[in-house]
């Protein structure tokens, strides 16, 4: 009995763990941690009266007709598994949606995979292609959801610093990275419109990037989840130019305010989808059938549901951009997504975590510290303007009060 307890640790609330097993997890798990975005958001949640402009969560509700489609699916007993690739009617609807919106043509029967949000699409894609020692190029700063999956695959992220070019990736940057890392590069991840910067690309810029990437035998994983939220121009997918290399990721979380429905897509050529489906199936079996039926309505009758939201986001963007610009934040003008990424003015604390903690404690306003998006983003803060104008007005007043009370040194 004593020997038994010698090898047991009490963790919490009387739960037991054989402590020798705690050393036997996948060693790569030790190299990752919970997203700093989520950790910081939880850290400030209990501050009295806090206004949180932290998470990438639309403040709109799912459109009513989409909700009703979900309710109808439940009533009609769509409570069983769909096929691994997803229901055919949602894949047909997705095929037509992406053709009408972006001029992309994917066969519903073999080139579209329905996933549990873009997050699972990212995991399935990376785990399908990466092997130990592979390298993945990523323009930085970048959403922190990619690196942990790369690490779990025992591969290595290679960051391309875009901060000196207003966060715009160029063909020259890609070519330089390929010169330095060569045959070890297995893929590049693109995310545009960008989280955290809100920057996106013109048709000419996308085409030039595509021409550069076409020279190399690498996968192009393009996360275009914010494609419906562009301002001043239409979204252009890199899959239009290099479909033979591209694994396109998208979904309904941002375009239709359906984050909780967890519905995404991988679109690619048939050979790629055949391999990706294996990993997808063992990760999740299939996406929620009820969510898929709601998605059919979103992609067809609700094809332009995102436009009304986009118009409101643009008003908010212009407001927050001007207010922060007036306060001295340097901002590469965002033309997509719903984020402002501002450089903390000179003379203020450039440690973004300390700046944001102090702001939250003294003014009950929570912004995400730039360091959450990598060392290239230190000295910045990310503001999510997916919030009501009332809250944004209060937030900018609190930010102004903080800056005036703590003048630059």
Automatic annotation (TrEMBL):
MF GO annotations: pyridoxal phosphate binding; transaminase activity
Keyword Transferase: yes
Class of enzymatic activity (EC top level): transferase
Lineage: superkingdom: Bacteria
Domain Aminotransferase class I/classII large, first and last residues per copy: 50-399
Database matches in Gene3D superfamilies: Aspartate Aminotransferase, domain 1, Type I PLP-dependent aspartate aminotransferase-like (Major domain)
Keyword Transferase assigned: yes
Pfam families assigned to the protein according to its UniProt record, in alphabetical order: Aminotran_1_2 (PF00155)
CDD domains, sorted: AAT_like (cd00609)
InterPro entries found in the cross-reference section: Aminotransferase_I/II_large, AspAT/PAT-like, NHTrfase_class1_PyrdxlP-BS, PyrdxlP-dep_Trfase, PyrdxlP-dep_Trfase_major, PyrdxlP-dep_Trfase_small
Cofactor(s) named in the record: pyridoxal 5'-phosphate
Keywords: Aminotransferase, Pyridoxal phosphate, Transferase
An example Gene Ontology biological process: amino acid metabolic process
EC number: 2.6.1.-
Family indicated by similarity: Belongs to the class-I pyridoxal-phosphate-dependent aminotransferase family.
Entry-linked NCBIfam families: PRK07309.1 (NF005588)
Name the record gives this protein: Aminotransferase
Organism: Vagococcus entomophilus
